Amino acid sequence: MYRDLASQEKDPNNKKTLDKLAQQEHEHYLFWRKFLPSYQPMVSPFFLLCFRMIRRLLGLTFTIKLLERHEHGVVEEYKKVAAELSGDEKSELERINDEEEHETFLLVKFKKRWSNRLALSRLG
């Protein structure tokens, strides 16, 4: 999803942030794939089309917030799973959990940048 948003983004800073989020999500996928090797997540073309329309109509910030609305719950679930793991897998899941918090930081940074642009456009 982030990769699709990044491919359509014109602002280089936003594109870089979206690419970074896409890379982190891909790494999370690779981690979980070790436990569920036969599972292949699929993004529906209709789902992609809907998010492209939301992006176009309501903006990138709203679209990202919509995609990340469940992030806090995911972090809590990761913590529960990490408590049941050991060794390298536990360390890797804890690293992923730290990245989830970093993603939140990136999104806040992105939102600030967007808010600053909005404020400047209203002043100018």
Secondary structure elements and their pairing?
Elements lengths: L1 H7 L3 H22 L11 H14 L1 H8 L3 H14 L2 H37 L1
List keywords for this structure.
single chain, 124 residues, mainly alpha, 6 helices
Quick summary of this structure?
This protein is mostly helical and 124 residues long.
Can you give a write-up of this model?
With 124 residues, the chain is mainly α. The chain has one domain (2-123). Helices cover 82% and strands 0% of the residues. It is built from 6 helices and no strands. The model has no long low-confidence stretch (mean pLDDT 77).
Q: Mean of the pLDDT scores?
A: 77
What is the strand content?
Answer: under 5%
Number of domains: 1
**Count of helical regions:** 6
Question: Quick one: how many beta strands?
Answer: 0
Broad shape: globular
Q: Helix coverage percent of residues?
A: over 70%
Radius of gyration: 16 Å
Largest sheet: none
Span of the ends, CA to CA:
34 Å
Helix and strand sequence: HHHHHH
Low-confidence stretches: none
SSE-based structural type? mainly alpha
